[in-house]
Amino acid sequence: MAETGPARRAKQVQTVRGPVSASRLGRVLAHEHIFVLSPEFLVNYPEYEGFREASDVPEAVRRLNELAAEGIDTIVDPTVVGLGRDIRRIQRVAAEVDLNIVVATGLYTYRDLPHFLHQRGPGGPFGDAEPLVEMFVGDITDGIAGTGVKAGVLKCVTDRAGITSGIARVLRAVAEAHHRTGTPIMTHTHAGSRQGLAQQNAFEAEGVDLSRVLIGHCGDTTDLDYLMALADRGSLLGMDRFGVDTILPFERRVDTVVRLCERGYDEHLVLSHDAACYIDWLPRDKLPSVLPNWHYLHITRDVLPALRQRGVTERQLRRMLVDNPRRFLAGD
């Protein structure tokens, strides 16, 4: 007989401050960054409007507490190697915010592997096993960079270039780490070239249950046939770039979510912005004028009211913000 009541152990999700019961995740933004940095430029050319530790860390604390005050309880931060991940810095932020922060392991690259990996691993001159697998598994089971902070998700990427030989290595390593640990997988994709389908094919070939995969950046397209095809294979869809109006305007992003909800696909959707407190890919002084809605509060203040006005129900919103992220992170 299955255990019930207090005897049944609640599923735990790893956060920066330690494991949290999945039932306490609350409302989740499933794809947000805190800092996206280019460390070599930061160290060597700080005069080029570099990251400022003394002011940017407190500003991140302020903005995340502002988000928590809007009723968001958890964010997933898929900042991995290739995006300037520094878990000690995130720990300093997490200690001062009333928010759960789930962090990731993985590798961010669109085409080629870093030179560090060229002569290591399969096909290299030394006959090594794939080092990425042990790196990812260690981040999940032991903690990241000696901090004890354990990754709660695996992150990988395919963009316009598709699954190159280097990207294939990353996808296989992510799949193996998933099998060893049960950790869910989230991705970056290029929706315009339907890269999510290629990701699903690659993971399916490695024996991954596609319901444990969140295909990212699906909200960058209005191609309902593509989006429904992804969902029909079991994956969650990241409608996760609200505010990036230069790729797809606000009204069309909202309309895509509405049309999917009308077709019963709200059980496959999660919402987010893919925003950051600071990203050095874009000039700090120009970002507000180019992307004025790309910030953490756009969903609570603009997107949710627009969805409600278009007939999306509170039950559907709860699925997208609470139930679906919880199911993904906890493996329910």
UniProtKB/TrEMBL annotation:
The cofactor(s) it depends on are:
a divalent metal cation
**In which domain of life is the source organism classified?**
Bacteria
- The UniProt transmembrane annotation reads none
> Listed GO molecular functions?
hydrolase activity; zinc ion binding
Q: List N6-carboxylysine occurrences by residue.
A: K155
User: Which residues hold Zn(2+) 2?
Assistant: K155, H188, H217
Give the note describing cofactor binding and stoichiometry: Binds 2 divalent metal cations per subunit.
InterPro entries from the entry?
A: Metal_Hydrolase, Phosphotriesterase
**Keywords, comma-separated and alphabetical:** Hydrolase, Metal-binding
Provide the binding site for Zn(2+) 1. H31, H33, K155, D274
The record ties this protein, via CDD domains, to: PTE
Q: Which family does it belong to?
A: Belongs to the metallo-dependent hydrolases superfamily. Phosphotriesterase family.
* Name used for this protein in its record: Putative metal-dependent hydrolase with the TIM-barrel fold
Q: Which organism is it from?
A: Saccharomonospora marina XMU15
